[in-house]
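Suppose a colleague, Dr. K., hands you the sequence of a protein chain of 134 amino acids and asks what its three-dimensional shape might be. Before reaching for any lab equipment, you can write down a predicted structure in token form. Begin with the sequence itself:
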Amino acid sequence: METPAHDDLPTPTPAQQALDVLAVNTDDQAALETLAHSDVLVPMPDEAVDAEGADSTMVALPVLEQPGGEQVVPVFTSELEMAGLLPSVSRYRLIQLGALASQWPEEELSLTIDGSSEHGLTLTSQGVRSLLAR
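The predicted structure, expressed as tokens, is then:
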């Protein structure tokens, strides 16, 4: 009789592994580099889907307002992670995190990666530009 492997848990992606490392050491350059070169899922609001044909180089960022008034953009390392926080969202764009960071808006807008998981990471607007824009 064979033993099931890890109760069928999905294998963490390189981005999720990098997030786990950064949870312990936020200065780990190898993990930051991995994260910057990883693709993330950017949820697409319905209104952005309707206007998609306008300019395919522009990405409409979904902005969530936190209880304290802070505005964050949620992105995810997998469909499973996205469904955990935004179960009603079914459309997304796959974008390299470093490319997204290099075009990050100037206003105070934070980025949350896998916000509902134990390896989630939130970066300030400055942190996004300085740590991930590669």
